[in-house]
Amino acid sequence: MAVILVLDDVLDAVVLTRKILERKGHVVHCFTEEEEAIAFAGNNPVDLAILDIKLKKMSGIQVLEELKAVAPDIRAIMLTGYPTVETAKEAVELGASEYCVKPIDKWELEQKVGRVLAL
To answer: Integer distance in angstroms from the first to the last C-alpha of the chain?
Structure first.
C-alpha cells in the first residue's frame, strides 16, 4: 500500500497509529523526534506524513514546512488535541490534506488516510 511517516512526541500514540495502519497493509515509520522524521523523509520515499501539531522542539506546522522542502509531493494529516481555526487554516495552507482531533478514532484514521492516499 503506502509508506507512511508518523511523528508524535508521545510514544504510545505513535505505536497505536502504527498498529492501526499496518493492519491495513501500510509500511509505517514512527518517530518521536522531529529532526529524525525530517531526515528520513529527505532520504526515503514517503507517501504520507501524519504529524502531531504539539511536539517537543518544533510545531507540527514547522515540521510540515520542512517536509515539504525536502519532499514536495508528500501528503499530510495533522493531529491535535488542541484544535483551533488558526492552526487548521495554517496546516491546510501548507498542504495538509486532513486535520484530525485527538484522541483519534481508529475508523476515522483509516478513512482519512484512505481519502488522502486516493488524492
So the answer is: 14
Cβ pair 61, 91 in contact under 8 A:
yes
The three-state DSSP-derived secondary structure of the chain is: CCEEEEECCCHHHHHHHHHHHHCCCCEEEEECCHHHHHHHHHHCCCCEEEEECECCCCEHHHHHHHHHHHCCCCEEEEEECCCCHHHHHHHHHCCEEEEEECCCCHHHHHHHHHHHHHC
Query: What are the extents of the domains in the chain?
Result: 9-104
Q: Cβ atoms within 10 A of the Cβ of 47, count?
A: 18
Query: CATH code for 9-104?
Result: 3.40.50.2300
Tens of pLDDT, residues 8-39: 999 999 999 999 999 999 999 999 999 999 99
Written as one letter, the residue type at 103 is P
Question: 72 is written with which cell numbers?
Answer: 514536495
pTM exceeds cut of 0.85: yes
